[in-house]
From TrEMBL:
The keyword rRNA processing does not apply. It holds the Pfam family ACT_9. Residues 263-343 form the ACT domain. This is Aspartokinase. It comes from Romboutsia ilealis. GO terms for molecular function: aspartate kinase activity; ATP binding. NCBIfam families: asp_kinases, PRK06635.1-2, PRK06635.1-4. InterPro entries: AceGlu_kinase-like_sf, ACT-like_dom_sf, ACT_Aspartokinase, ACT_dom, AKii-LysC-BS, Asp/Glu/Uridylate_kinase, Asp_kin_monofn, Asp_kinase. Pathway: Amino-acid biosynthesis; L-threonine biosynthesis; L-threonine from L-aspartate: step 1/5; Amino-acid biosynthesis; L-lysine biosynthesis via DAP pathway; (S)-tetrahydrodipicolinate from L-aspartate: step 1/4; Amino-acid biosynthesis; L-methionine biosynthesis via de novo pathway; L-homoserine from L-aspartate: step 1/3. Gene3D superfamilies: Acetylglutamate kinase-like, VC0802-like. Its EC number is 2.7.2.4.
């Protein structure tokens, strides 16, 4: 008998009917003779609705209370799934992150898993129960509930698989990992195997099908991850480090990140403390900065532009407000109508870059910023070019 972790995301848990079919899928696994730990997300768009509720009161709510609120979504799912499994005649028990022994560290809304004490989970598995764990949450050293960042149920699932030394299946609303989000590029051909490193790069740059930290944990702990459809019995995608699988394609995928924006600050006085003030404010707001550009307009003035993550907490708005109130001679604004589109692969060489620049030229598409990493090249484009650019890239690189 072996243990296995299943994870079901928001769409897969989106209604009572869907929860009942998740219950059946879990029972099938149990019937194969396996001990099953199930990690679930909040139903449908519940987490977004909770974010909106908080923002109706305060656009920059207290982060402890924000976590307290957001973590409730998963609590609804775990109990309903336990009831659904029990009603089919099987034993099940639901646990919050705390009850499952998940300890977290770091800041609210973006915590990391520090450790997992699996005793209670194992005890209940030994009693023959199906154990259901709330994704996306844990408890910090102050005894407060924290959340792991949006999409964090994937992290709960893979971290539990690592702690239990078992495999992890991520069941979701698509049939596996595609080179491009199939909702944006329906021609995309499903990938059978992808390496951890390639998946980490795709996720980091916006392929939300797997949350980045989860794949990093899988990589570090050698957890085999299989991503598949929660509703269809089709073949999914393995994320592994299998040395026999060599991907010869120079470009393996396109990642799209809609959650970036450009924060620009103009008329900074170069010879004053303005720049330090700006960085202090950005650091206080915990802004995730992806690129920094500085352009000197003359000897006395300079402009800074940052590519940042939008986030749920209105941090960029707050930063702009703080910057304007502390430095009333500067102009500060956010350009929200942009996306980051990244071409990912081991073979991003001059030949590939030349092809991409030809697409820009031949189709009159402009980009605002460009940045590279070992495995990718990323372009920030106005949203009006997004769909067309994705289609042209998908076509060019046969994705
Ligand atoms: P869940 O609620 O199951 O965690 P998510 O919405 O977080 O589901 O992730 C699944 C979604 O990820 C898909 O519906 C798809 O639109 C999107 N996605 C983005 N990039 C990719 C990709 N490269 N391959 C597959 N799906 C992708
Ligand atoms: N419910 C959380 C979110 O919407 C966690 C998750 O879905 O993985 O971000
Ligand atoms: Mg997800």
């Amino acid at each position: 008998m072996s243990t296995i972790v299943h994870k079901y995301g928001g769409t897969s848990m989106g209604s009572i009917e869907k929860i009942k079919s998740v219950a059946k899928k879990v029972i099938l696994e149990k019937e194969k003779g396996n001990d099953v730990v199930v990690v679930v997300s909040a139903m449908g768009k519940t987490t977004n609705k909770l974010v909106d509720l908080a923002k109706e009161i305060d656009t920059n709510p207290d982060k402890r209370e924000f976590d307290m609120l957001l973590s409730t979504g998963e609590q609804i799912s775990i109990s309903l799934l336990a009831i659904a499994i029990q009603s089919l005649g099987y034993e099940a028990i639901s646990f919050t992150g705390y009850q499952a022994g998940i300890k977290t560290k770091g800041v609210h809304a973006k915590s990391e898993i520090d450790s997992i004490d699996t005793d209670r989970i194992k005890e209940n598995l030994e009693q023959g129960k199906i154990v259901i764990v709330a994704g996306f949450q844990g408890i910090n050293e102050n005894g407060d509930i924290t959340t792991l960042g949006r999409g964090g149920s994937d992290t709960t699932a893979v971290a539990l698989a690592a702690a239990l030394g078992c495999n992890c299946i991520i069941y979701t609303d698509v049939e596996g990992i595609y080179p491009v989000d199939p909702k944006l590029y329906p021609n995309a051909k499903k990938i059978d195997f992808i390496s951890y490193k390639e998946m980490i790069e795709m996720s980091r740059l916006g392929a939300g099908v797997m949350e980045t930290t989860s794949v990093e944990i899988g990589y570090k702990n050698n957890v085999p991850i299989y991503v598949a459809s929660s509703s269809k019995d089709t073949k999914g995608t393995y994320i592994t480090e299998n040395k026999n699988i060599i991907n010869y394609k120079s470009v393996i995928g396109i990642a799209i990140d809609d959650h970036t924006s450009i924060l620009t600050i103009k008329d900074i006085l170069s010879k004053s403390n303005d720049i330090s003030t700006v960085f202090e404010i950005l650091s206080n707001e915990n802004l995730e900065i992806k690129i920094i550009n500085q352009i000197a307009s003359d000897n006395e003035h300079t402009s800074l532009s940052f590519v940042v993550s939008k986030g749920d907490l209105g941090c960029v708005d707050k930063a702009i407000y703080e910057i304007k109130s502390k430095l009333n001679h500067v102009e500060a604004y956010e350009d929200l109508d942009v996306s980051t589109i990244s071409v990912v692969g081991k073979g991003i060489n001059y030949h590939v870059i030349n092809k991409i620049f030809n697409i820009f030229k031949e189709n009159n598409i402009n980009f605002k910023q460009v940045f590279t990493s070992e495995l990718s090249i990323s372009f920030i484009v106005d949203n009006k070019y997004k769909q067309r650019f994705i289609e042209l890239l998908g076509n060019e690189f046969d994705l």
